[in-house]
Amino acid sequence: MVDEMTTMKDDVINANTLAWLVCSGVSILANTWSILSVSAKQKKWKPLEFLICTLAGTHILNMAIPITMYCVITLRRQHSNYEWNEGLCKVFVSTFYTLTLVTCFSVTSLSYHRMWMVRWPVNYRLSNTKKQAVHTVMGIWMVSFILSTLPAVGWHDTIDRFYTSDCRFIVTEIGLGFGVCFLLLIGGSVAMGVICIGIALFQTFSIQAGHNADKNKFNVPTIVVEDAQGKRRSSIDGSEPLKTSLQITYLISGIVFIYDFLTGFPILVVSFASLKFDRSYNWMVLCVLWCSIAQSILLPMFLWACDRYRADIRMVWEKCVAIMSNDEVDEGAPYKKILPRRNRHVDQRPDPLIPASMGLHRGRDSGCPLQLHLAAPREAQEQPGLLPRGEPLSSPPSPQAAAI
């Protein structure tokens, strides 16, 4: 009876293996194109684009390593006596759950950044969001890797090990402790992502339906800080155009809901059911693998539907040529050369009250960004770009004062 059930299970898995392998290849190509397309459309990288490319890269790794490994080994078992061994099964389980957690946390990070950008636009632009995004990705990978490698080093059921008979990767087959931790992390991340994107959508709709005064409250102008010589010292990006803001908000909302309904909730149901019944079924394996593949294929479709990230072949080719020939130059490079190393740091904390004597003005064109001209002291005039710290900014003395 056990042999018949095992054979039936193998037949169900074998019937879907080739489809999984083909879809994995399509997903790898589509997500690679998405990364190139986003890179080609962006002249200045922002945290949101960085997180989107990180999510697409996670999909590529998930399809290329664990999913492809599972399909190839399953196909080899059909045509030979090849079987799973302890090492291969541990590698598959560790990489699959690492990338699953990274995907979940990356989607949550996307929704959090969008909520922050829409709800508190001034604070978002004054904060070092690029550095925070990089640190977030590093923390996501570290936490996911540590938890997912624990079953490979001994945190599993020692009575019936998950790699002794086939490779049973559903959480209940690995162990109760790992299953509970995985369930809590996935559930908490999904809940936080839904809350953050809900706040972002509510804020977006309330601004659209509100009065002009409420809209101007969340409108951030572009501010450029210059010294007396007209050298750019720092800048703050202004608010996005309304059309662009709506596109990005809807895009992130679509990504969050796709993940929640195609991966987050199904994995929660499968994990909870397997822990409750203390066994795994064929439909659990099919559900987990198909949902992982489906949400990785749908991400490039959503990016392609957004004008901001849709690039043609010519733009992608020019971007690749520029990267290979190192033609791209950092936007801040000219200004970094002007300032000495010890004075490269520019404090971007805003002054709540900017007096008229500091030279804040707007050009005749209403679309012109605000420019803040800072008069430099005498030492900075003699040595352009040198502005000692701790010395207050003041206007140069008038000729009458100098004569006195």
Sheet with most strands: 4 strands, mixed
User: In total, how many beta strands?
Assistant: 4
Q: What structural category do the secondary elements indicate?
A: mainly alpha
CA-based gyration radius: 27 Å
With strands numbered from the N-terminus, the spatial order across the biggest sheet is: 2-1-4-3
Reading off the top of the CATH hierarchy, the class is best stated as: Mainly Alpha
The number of helices is 14
Shape: globular
Q: State the CATH architecture.
A: Up-down Bundle
The portion of residues forming beta strands comes to under 5%
Uncertain segments: 1-5, 328-349, 351-368, 370-383, 385-395, 399-404
The number of distinct structural domains comes to: 1
Verbal overview:
This protein has 404 residues and is mainly alpha-helical. It has one domain: Up-down Bundle (Rhopdopsin 7-helix transmembrane proteins). The protein has helices spanning 2-41, 47-79, 86-119, 121-126, 129-149, 171-174, 176-209, 212-217, 242-277, 282-305, 313-325, 333-338, 378-382, 399-403, and strands spanning 223-227, 232-236, 360-361, 370-374. Strands 2-1-4-3 form a four-stranded mixed β-sheet, with no helix packed on it. α2 (47-79) packs parallel to α5 and α3 runs parallel beside α7 (176-209). It is globular, with a radius of gyration of 27 Å. Residues 1-5, 328-349, 351-368, 370-383, 385-395 and 399-404 have low confidence and may be disordered.
